[in-house]
Each structure stands twice: as structure tokens, then as C-alpha cells.
Amino acid sequence: MADELFKKEKVLECARRILEKVENLDSYGKNDKGRFETLDGTKKYLDIKNGIYFFYDGKHKKIVRVGTHKADGGLKRRISKHFGKNDASIFRERVGMAMACDSQAKWNKALDAKVSEYINKFEIKVIGVEGKDRRLDYENKIIATLSWAGFFSREFRKPDEVMKNSPDGMIGKIGMWLKDGMFDEPVEDLREVEKIFSGNHDE
């Protein structure tokens, strides 16, 4: 029991550090020209080609989705899929299902517009990570850590009304638009969190 409690506290500590790191990253949104531009008015454009991205809810101070890409140089292309039409990404598909309260929801213009409006309210945050295997590994560790934190503590859940309507009850329970890798092995060492976010990923 003592070991379980210790692990829980370690995971929560690491999840808090991940959230802190993400909060301090530049925030981007997609502008009218389809480019990812900083939201603070500095007119900086996203120039990271390979990495891990976060959809961040600034209102509730929480991460709602974590993702990456496999193809070299494919970061911006992968993020752009979430701003596409209909169910262009699993993220869009799951939001649409929740809005329609139906796992077999049929897409139409009205639903598509609602999904786009919902996703556009989130800030995009990015860290650079080279190497497909490393990106996938770090993505998995971050997802597992945040989902376990949501399981352990209300501090990390805070699902919005759309999440609560998801046919996948785990999305509403954990408060993230994720499924795969949610309860894999989490990070329990702050040094590993620092390594992931440092930009220095040498073994």
C-alpha cells in the first residue's frame, strides 16, 4: 500500500511538472493563411519540423490532447489535420461523436462547423523532438503520466461539457481527448520530464 501511494505521488508530481512546462511554451493558433502563428501578437511562426504537440485549454489550465507524427518533417502537417474537414483526424472524429452524443454520428456542415469552433479555442504548444522512435516513446510517456494523474486526482480531470457527452466514458472520466496509451507506464522521475522538455535528448 505504501509503495502504491509513493508511486501515485510521484506520478502526480511528474504530471504537474509536465503541465508547468507546457504552460510556459509559446502558444500558437492557425491564422487565416493556414500558418501557425503565436497568439501573443509577436507574429512568430511555428518553425519546428519534428516534435510533440499539445492542445492546451488556457481557460481551465489543462492539456486536452497530446500527439506526434511518424514522417520526418511532418509536425505541422499532422497538426493541420485537426483543422481539416469532417473527421479528418481521430481528434475531430471523437469530438464530433461527443457533440452528436452518438458513436455512429453522420457528419454534416453544421456538425463540422461546431467541431472546428471547439478545436479552434485551444492553444497549440510544441516541443522539438528528433527521431520517430523517440517521439513516439516520449508521446506515450506523457500520455500515460497525464492519464494516470487524471485517474488519481480531480486536479487533472476537469472535463468540459463536450467531453462529458463522449460515448467513450473514459474521455469524460480522464478529461483528455485520448485513448491509446492512456494507462501505459507513466513517468515517475522528474529528471525524465526535464529530459523530455530540455531539447537535449542524447542518451
List the helices and strands and how they pair.
Layout: H1 2-23, E1 28-30, E2 36-38, E3 51-57, E4 62-67, H2 75-81, H3 90-100, H4 109-120, E5 123-128, H5 132-152, H6 161-164, H7 169-174, H8 190-198
Antiparallel strand pairs: 1-2, 3-4, 3-5
Helix pairs in contact: 1-5, 3-4
Description:
With 203 residues, the chain is of the alpha+beta class. The chain contains eight helices and five strands, in the order αββββαααβαααα. A three-stranded antiparallel β-sheet has the order 4-3-5. A two-stranded antiparallel sheet has the order 1-2. The longest helix is centred in the first third of the chain and has 22 residues, at 2-23. The protein is globular and about 50 Å long. The mean pLDDT is 91.
Strand residue content: 5-15%
Tell me the Rg in angstroms: 17 Å
The count of β-strands is: 5
Structural class: alpha+beta
Shape, please?
globular
Task: List its salient traits.
single chain, 203 residues, two-stranded antiparallel ribbon
What's the quick description here?
This protein has 203 residues and is α+β, with helices and mostly antiparallel strands.
